[in-house]
Amino acid sequence: MRDRYLPLLATIAVFAALYIAGGMFYPRIFSSLVFGHLLADNAFIIIAAIGVTFVIISGGIDLSIGSMIGFVGVAMASLIQAGWDPVLVLVLVLVFGLLYGAFQGFIIDFCDIQPFIATLSGLFLLRGACFMVNLNSTPIRSPFVSWFNNIYVDLPGGGFLTGGALVMLFMLALAIVIAHYTRFGTNVYAMGGDRPSAILMGMPMRRTTVMIYALAGFYSAVAGVIYAMNTSSGYPLAGNTLELSAIAASVLGGTMLTGGVGLVVGALFGGMILALISTIIIFNGSLNGAWIMIATGFLLFAFIVIQRWIVSSFSSAAKAD
């Protein structure tokens, strides 16, 4: 069990070190106002990262996240502008995300295609669909969206949580229950940890694969809804490369790319690490945005090396026993 928690502990240690170091140079980072903005501004990335965490734990990958975020925003904007009820539109795009993810999972298992290739195809399909729906940015004007954007829960010290942050926390709680308190969650870990043994034990591989990618598609659609509501617009290029940010947040959160190891709560800390890097550089003022990518890349390399070391250490220990 120790190897299951070590990557998450490393993530929490890095997050705490960044937070303390940033606060020492820029004391305002310690304020609840900045903390609330960290959660609010990155809620959609964290939600997407939670969904892709299930996929990575199972030994797969999902590259269609960013395109799903863009398509959901364009579809919402176009349908609401056409006079559709916003709540109905919300339900439709979430169902679409779930079904599209399930379709990808079915193709991966039925056709025995590598998840990388299948979801890369899904990325291009959805991005092309974005441009088929609308070539331009479309504003979302709706009392429902305005109401959602005006949801605030006060925090001590003058900070607050927005509606997007509250949705993210709810989706995180739901993911924790699914991953750690259901048979499906157990199957996800079994599939990524030792696929041949899972097959021999009679685990329903096709159904589990379809459910994993359906869940990831649903979470990506939720991320798209939050992104579209926060920006009050739908844009065909929205979410471009955000799949990489979501995967990075998951890996920084302690999810091993080899599969079988990871905790969904790690996606929260991984997303917050990305947010802290951006915030510290913005507070500095003398560094440009390129340093955000450089720092993120450096941390990713470091975490991959740490993960490799953990896997090698426990493999050696298992052979010794």
Describe this structure in words.
The protein is mainly α and 321 residues long. The protein has a single domain, classed as ABC transporter involved in vitamin B12 uptake, BtuC (Orthogonal Bundle). Helices cover 75% and strands 3% of the residues. It contains 14 helices and 4 strands. It has helices at residues 2-25, 32-41, 43-57, 65-81, 86-110, 115-133, 143-149, 163-181, 183-193, 195-200, 205-231, 242-252, 265-284, 290-320, and strands at 138-139, 152-154, 160-162, 233-234. Strands 1-4 form a two-stranded antiparallel ribbon. It has a two-stranded antiparallel sheet with strand order 2-3. Strand 2 (152-154) and strand 3 (160-162) form a beta hairpin. The longest helix has 31 residues, at 290-320. The radius of gyration is 20 Å and the shape is globular. The model has no long low-confidence stretch (mean pLDDT 88).
The total count of strands amounts to: 4
State the share of residues found in helices, binned by percent.
over 70%
Structural Rg: 20 Å
Main pleated-sheet profile: 2 strands, antiparallel
Q: Output the helix-strand order.
A: HHHHHHEHEEHHHHEHHH
Q: How many DSSP helices?
A: 14
Spatial order of strands in the largest sheet:
1-4
CATH fold descriptor: ABC transporter involved in vitamin B12 uptake, BtuC
Which structural class do the helices and strands define?
mainly alpha
Q: What value does the average pLDDT take?
A: 88
User: Mind telling me which CATH architecture this is?
Assistant: Orthogonal Bundle
Strand content: under 5%
Low-confidence stretches: none
